[in-house]
Amino acid sequence: SDGSIRLHQMTSEYPLMQWNDSTNGQPVIALQWALTRPAVFFVLDASSNLYIWDLLENDLLPVAKQTIPSENVVTMTLLGEPEKTNGLLGIALAKESGQIDIQYVKKKWALP
Questions:
Q1: Where are the beta strands (DSSP E) in the chain?
Q2: Which top-level group of life is the source organism from (predicted)?
């Protein structure tokens, strides 16, 4: 609820890494690891900002931030086939009106 993100190992109650205020204090609505690239994850905050984290490129800050204009996004999910190496990775964004917006991720964040 405070915008912090914690990375845990299943065998410990203490986080391996913690990013405080990673969304400028906005609550995290959804977080999901990339299906095709293990070091990348996506975060959606309550202000409809989408953050892309690539831990191999920068483990302190997100590598990209995209504001979804016009309407509140209430959740997201990732679309892709991990067993394929074509680098296709999509994000389905569910908006408050019930509209679904699908966007594709740049290959640099999707390729294995």
A1: 5-8, 15-19, 28-33, 40-45, 49-54, 64-67, 73-80, 89-95, 100-104
A2: Eukaryota
Digit-coded pLDDT (tens) for 25-46: 899 999 999 988 889 999 999 9
Q: What are the distances in angstroms from CA 16 to CA 2, 10, 35, 39?
A: 19, 10, 21, 14
User: Whole-angstrom Cα distance, residue 19 to residue 45?
Assistant: 14
Backbone angles phi, psi at 68, to 5 degrees: -90, 110
Structure confidence by residue, pLDDT tens digits, 58-78: 999 999 999 988 779 999 999
Domain boundaries of the chain, sorted by first residue: 5-104
Residues in the chain: 112
